[in-house]
Amino acid sequence: MFVKNTLVNFDDRIHYLHFLKMLRLMVQGTANNVVVPQLRQFHASAVCCKLQAGRYKITPKRNRPLTYEMANPPYYIAHRKSWNSWDTTSLLDGQRPAETSVEDVFIRRFVNGTWQDLFCSEVIIKRQHNLIRIAGIIRQGLPARKMYFLIGYSEELLANWLQCPVKLELQTVENKEATIFKYI
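Now predict its structure.
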């Protein structure tokens, strides 16, 4: 901060006057909403220390449905819930970790787009050697012919694109409410 006695040259005095002008503008603003033109703005609010990462917020009417996987917080992975992608690429000296992640995102988008609004659970991707197994729970909203067509269609296209065998392992439920564990 500038002190009047230490101002030596003309430039320091100009900066000091500009600083005082900005300080006056800051004082004239309200305590909560300070606008400082031509300066970097900063927020003087309290630091938000969140301790609940990966949890869903409780709604006022408690009408948000959660499946069993969604109801358990992340620190229960491998105890009460499992991973959505099963592979060994993230281990030390794992091969192709970036490509595997991109392929997993592509598989999830393809499956959610092909089986539009039929999946009641998350898409689980399991990799074993060169075989990719895709698991999930779907609604019984399709005739058997269409379901078998979509299974074959998905397996063939994904096998051609990913250059490895792909197998869909699906379970069916009557309606989506059968997979709801609790409401928050």
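The longest strand covers residues 131-139.
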